[in-house]
Structures are given as structure tokens and as C-alpha cells.
Description:
Mean pLDDT: 86
Number of strands: 5
Structural class: alpha+beta
Largest sheet: 5 strands, antiparallel
Shape: elongated
Strand content: 15-25%
Strand order of the largest sheet: 1-2-3-4-5
Radius of gyration: 29 Å
Distance between the termini: 101 Å
Order of helices and strands: HEHEEEEHH
Oligomer: single chain
Number of helices: 4
Amino acid sequence: MAKTEMPETGRHEKDFVHDMLYPFTVLGCICLVSAALLGYTHGVTEPMIRMMKEKMAQEARIAVLPGAASFTRVDCDTEALGITGAYKEDGGAGYVLSAENKGYGGNVAATVGLNPDGMIVGIMVDASSETQGVGTKVGTAAYLDQYIGNEDPGNIDGISGATYSSTAMKADIDAIINAFREIKEAGQ
């Protein structure tokens, strides 16, 4: 009996399935499983992350407003006012407002506590995206202490070499003070 050889095209077809189609199928399955696991993990962790962010924000509000215990969100158009958040302390100690403006390396975010008269009584700044040792100086106590006790801090000098960061910080404070005035005029 004569041996029959497989036609040339059949062998190439088998090689194609084994060498090309099989690895793509395996990689596709791995990608699908990975995507499903990532989606599940995101769904499980998202509420916890949101809760931790709110807890940190509450702690920041308490830190910048001495004597504060709890807050109520002020119903206002934060976007129109140029701020990211406004809260009134439930016991009448004052307000806490937040703003964020573009610095050199990213956003400079400020959270400011104001007494009922609009005087700055506490301030926290996140300038971590700014240039280390230069722009980050807007978050130091030496710089921030200039704002404490001010109702109109327009006369505070910026930091030499950190023009963008200083300008962003001043824009934050200006937006916060102007928003405070608008909120008070609205009777909130």
C-alpha cells in the first residue's frame, strides 16, 4: 500500500490554527477574565474609597475651623463661585470653603476655615504636585501663617521662584473669600 501524504494546504491550515489562532484565543480569555476581576474589584472598593475621602475631608474641615464639630453643605453654585466646596459649621463657628487652581506642576488645592465675620482662622493646602522645595513652599506653615487673621489677604507676597504656585494659591484664597461674601449675602 502506498502512503498518502497530506496535501500541502492542509498542513499549513493546521499550523495556522496551532501557531496563530490558539495563542490569540488563550490571550483573549485571559484578558476577559482579567477585565472581569478588575471590574469586580472596582465595584467592591469604590464605596470604601469614597467613604475614606469623605472622612479625610471632614477631618480637614475640623482642622481648619477651631471648635468645629459637624458641618452642613452650603447649597450654592460652586462652579459659578469658583470653589470646589462650601460647608457651614452647625454650631455657628463659621464656614469652611475649598478651591483649586492650576499651579506649575498641577493643581494647588486650599481648604480655608473662616469665622462668621469672614476672617481666615485656619488653612490647609495640598501643593504636592508642585516642584519640591520651590512650589511646595505655598503649603508650609511659614507661608500659610500670613493668611491667618486676614479678611483680605491681597497684600501677601508670593514666593520667589514659585510664581505659578503662589498665583494659584492667591486665586484659591480670592475665590474662597469672594464665595464667602456671596454666600453670606444670600443669607446662608
